[in-house]
Fold:
Amino acid sequence: MADQLYNAIFIGSIYALFALGFTLVFSVLDILNLAHPALFTLGAFVALFAMQQGVPAALAVIVAFVVCGLAGVVLDRVAFAPLRRRNAPPLSAMISSIGVALIVIRLIQLRYGPDLQAYPAGSLPAAVFSVGDLELDTLRTVIIVLAIGLMLALTYVVRRTRLGRELRALAENPRAARLVGIDIDRAIAATFFLSAGLGGVAGVLYGFATNSPFSQMGLGFELKAFAVMIVGGMGSIPGAVLGAYLLSFGEIASLTFLPSELRDAFAFGLLFVVLLVRPRGILGRRAVDRV
Amino acid sequence: MDDLGQFLEAYQTTIGFIGLNAILALSVWLTLYTGQLTLGNAAFAGIAAYSSALLTMKAGFPFPLALASGALFAAAVALPLGATVFRLRGVYLAIATLAFGEVVRVAILAIPITGRGQGLVGIPPKTELWHIFLSLIVVAVVCARLRQSNVGRAWAAIREDEIAAASQGIRVRRYQLAAFVLGALVAGWAGGLAAHFDFAIQPDEFGFARAVQILVFAVVGGIPNVLGPILGAFLLTALPAILQPLQEYRDIFQGAILVLVIVYLPRGLATLLELGRTARLRTVGAEDVA
Structure:
């Protein structure tokens, strides 16, 4: 039982980290960035590449954050910025991001193939410690702490810093934000850097925990992230965190009354019900102040 | 004639899938043309594929009757679904239909008679190429005629401005629901044909990736007229076959084409066919969907 709860906290933390980056871009720019799962996968493989060159795991996480963050900025310049200039509808950006996702995944496969990979032996902590009767492994515990730390850090950035104020202004009204002297291009680049960086770190951490990164690992998370965002409220950062843990605990709980092959049905059933009953989600507000 | 026969035989699968994909692209065109993005058509194709295949295999239905039953079943599921989800707009509608698709996929995995994850195998291969292309022609003509009719004008009006359309007395939700259910019927027909074309079907063939792929065919081809989705499905299905020697780089080409078309040809590839008529195109205005 305690084991199950620990698992729920772990997977919920990964859901949250993944969904935060997804929801950040949506809240600021109204774009559903379907390349986000590809950046998640990229993170796991950047860390793999770095560690194969002898970089320690902790440093590899930072490398993945920076590389994915920069990839996110490039993604925006290539696939989204031209559409923004033309005032194209949000669907265009979504389709364009699908194109980028195809390219990124294939590039990863060209280097590593479609199969499961593993991080270099001995590069990840294998130690186990116990709290009471409960055996916890160091790696997952570190991952949970790190993920929660990143969630708090992002909340701090958005709520308390100058950049956060700029992002919120941009989300509210891009034209007014420009009028009051906000450097829109810089703020958008920062949004993509943070979003993609967090997505990449989520990928590394999940890759570490399973020790089997593979090129399609982002797919399941993409669908779950939709559920997380809708349940919590599209574009709401605390909503994404709440939605992530609700989903992970709900999934674990559902195993007690649903056969395991129906586990995924829980997420989509929940998503469906929330959309019909309360489309803006638990913490979503209507169209204003979404960050 | 012999050359043609050999060509058809060698590329039968690819040619068949070009036609099936074109029909599916038209099925999603119907809702896109009304200005709404739905991602349920892969699931409707799946519902019809499984039900029609089970009808021919286990109940001994004749092929045409099984096809029709499958398509009608998909449409019958679409009606209550559409009536509930069309309260939603934009990404919310897209995600709701997507969630429906995943529920269908999980349901197929959970019902023993579908063969679950291994897929349903041993479906009698009844679909001939001419079935597919005759269906495509019928669907394309019906869509083209609808577009020019009162219904099509109502759809276009809704797409341009829902509130204005409603104030003109157009029943917005009823028209959008009609497009959605008709789209499900068309997708279901294509699903039934696909099931009997390929001997076996698997749940993943009708999942999220497929839904996105169908949408991409339609949008890359272009929404302003019915030629767009057909062209998009044709090019994007034929391309991988043509690029067989470069198979490793295939996704890279496809991804690049997607980005380039969206960035430089916002109304889709079909605009290339209409360069001489740009003035008219401007009045068609499909930019709010693509």
